[in-house]
Amino acid sequence: MNRILLSADSTCDLGSSLKEAYQVHYYPFHIILGGREYQDNVDITPQEIFQIYREKKLLPRTAAINVQEYLNYFTPFVEQGYEVIHLNLGGALSSAYQNCLLASKELPGIYPVDSYNLSTGIGLLVCDAAEWIREGLKAEEIAKRLEGRKKLVHSSFILDTLKFMSAGGRCSSITALGANLLNIKPCIQVDNTSGAMYVGKKYRGTLDKVLPRYVKDTLRSYTRLNLKRLFITHSGIGDSCIRLVKTAVQREASFENIYVTQASCTISCHCGPNTLGILFETEA
Asked: Which site in 54, 159, 183, 273 is 20 to 30 Å from 210, CA atoms measured?
């Protein structure tokens, strides 16, 4: 029997139930806020980050996992005889993958995978990998399959505010101010051939009006949906918005599983509160 351990950066956002079901190990990114450093979803939560912002106007920063941290993390697994498949936050967004790759050269049986994605876009690949492990595939073959699978993952989010993107240097403060004044809700999409983010369609109006339109537009953009699973992932948003989105998804396609998860601190730090996205795969 293969001794393969499945692992991912904390940014894969699967939620506790799926993390446990698929036996996924996480390693946390770093959150810097108010002169202190925290571990993503270990000793700080997105709700606490947003509360500190509301009270003190302090905006968070994030830092990638470094080479030594990956080495310290992987070494006990290798010593126990495991091979490790580790899915990283997209290399276009973070240095985590390059750091993980450097660490893997020091240890046998470590297979880092640049997801070319973020949040449950990574999570979708984690689920695929878990199923292939259960089927008995070897680690090297699974890593190879994941490389081909990345282009089938589709991730996008609707932002309620660009303030946090602006603070992270991913858009200008002028753009953020203009969007907020005009009540524009941009759709941020992930390029699954590189992992880079770009602005797609710009919606105007309140979230309860925008989100169903976004779901309809997004799902109708693809003709060969993989109906095994879809994620609704958010940074903290009202239940009414989640229900609206779930209803809109069900109206467009009959997914076998619709999972609702909350984004990690790292993702939330960059997208801000009231962000919501749908993430899914298409068929080859």
From this structure: 54
Enclosing H/E stretch for 126:
helix 120-134
Q: Is 125 exposed, middle or buried (0-12, 13-18, 19+ CB in 10 A)?
A: buried
Q: Are strands 184-190 and 61-63 parallel, antiparallel or unpaired?
A: unpaired
Identify whether the C-beta of residue 50 lies closer than 8 Å to the C-beta of residue 74: no
Residue 7: C-alpha distances to residues 92, 193, 205 (Å): 20, 22, 39
Half-sphere exposure (Cβ direction) of 64: Cα atoms closer than 13 Å: 17
Q: What is the pLDDT of residues 238-249, one digit of tens each?
A: 999 999 999 999
Task: Output the CA–CA distances (angstroms, integers) from residue 158 to 16, 57, 273, in the order listed.
Answer: 24, 23, 11
How far apart (Å, rounded) are the C-alpha atoms in residues 110 and 154? 26
Residue 272, SS3 per DSSP: coil
Q: What is the pLDDT of residues 198-225, one digit of tens each?
A: 888 999 999 999 999 999 999 999 999 9
pTM comes to 0.93
The two beta strands, 4-9 and 184-190, are unpaired
236: β partners: none
If you search the block for the tokens 């997801």, which residue do you land on? 115
